Amino acid sequence: MAGIGKNIEEAKKLLDANKLVGIPTETVYGLAGNAFNEDAVLDIFRVKQRPSFDPLIVHASNLDQIRGFVKEIPDQAEMLAQELWPGPLTMLLNKKSVIPDLVTSGLGTVAVRIPRHPLTLALLNSLEYPLAAPSANPFGYISPTKAIHVNEQLGDAIDYILDGGDCLIGVESTIISFEGKIPTILRLGGQPIERLKEFLGEVKINEHSTSQPAAPGMMKSHYAPSKKLILNHQSDLLKKYSAAETGVLVFGQMHTEIPVANQYVLSATGNVNEAAKNLFSAMRELDQKPDIRIIIADAIPNIGLGKAINDRLKRASAE
Ligand code: TXA
Ligand code: MG
């Protein structure tokens, strides 16, 4: 198991030696390594068992540092950077050669963000390089939102996890590209699209990028528990399972026919932000309960972070 603590110097010492460290962000925990070092980057792919065609996100402490490794920042990206960073928004920008091709899986663009977490910002400020960090879970599984989630799955492969408490947002960052005329969202996430539209006017959502190697995080079956997950009540399907075998991700009121211990309330008051924060740990806990064979997710309104939640639930339910 890895050490868990708030020791930024310990994390820096390991990262400077091109080792990997679990880091907290406002969205989910990351598996971080020196983005300029190929050995560290290779290790990220190995530890996560991530296919080499799925590029990583690079985390920086400030915009000046980013200017050092991207060719240019389009006006719209500059505006979003000023307004929304640090925050749950990842932008695709043309990379300079200091970013190894391994990081971007050979693409000319690098995914970049400044995360909004005091511990990780302090760590990034102490480093002379940015951090490549995908979510700290085995490829395809649910992203971690607590330090202990990282330790459970990757603790044997890394030395240290910086403990920043529970992630405040709970779903991964929104990814945006400026390649076309109109900015395109490649992954719905922690930065609600409604807010992006306030700055950009029109945006496109590329829901069909699921099969593009350019954005494999958009793959249909992803963010998935090992048990079957279904959306809402599909009553004919439910007849196959007893109440004791059924788990529920509850939005609003609990279900009277299902044991209380099998129900995880994402938000009792119908708050999508609260539901996003609780989503992944609830999915994990239901996944770990031995008696449960099926997980039902209540319907969530498709507004604000509800859009990102519904996207993750849809992917988690895909075969
Ligand atoms: O909130 C987050 O974004 C978290 C925290 C740790 O920052 N990170 C995260 O990383 O979710 P990851 O690796 O699980 O997802 C990154 C996604 C992948 O789906 C990848 O395909 C996409 O970003 N991506 C990275 N670079 C890309 C690029 N140049 N073009 C298109 N997609 C890219
Ligand atoms: Mg991920």
Domain tally: 2
Q: Total number of helical segments?
A: 10
Bound molecules: threonylcarbamoyladenylate, magnesium ion
Percent helix, as a range, is 25-40%
Structural class: alpha/beta
Reported for the largest beta sheet, the result is: 11 strands, mixed
CATH topology of the largest domain: DHBP synthase
Overall mean pLDDT stands at 94
Beta-strand percentage range: 15-25%
The outline comes out as globular
**How large, in whole angstroms, is the Cα Rg?**
19 Å
- Output the helix-strand order: EHEEHEHHEEHEHEEEHEEHEEHEH
Separation of termini?
A: 32 Å
> Which parts are unreliable, with pLDDT below 50 for 5 consecutive residues or more?
none
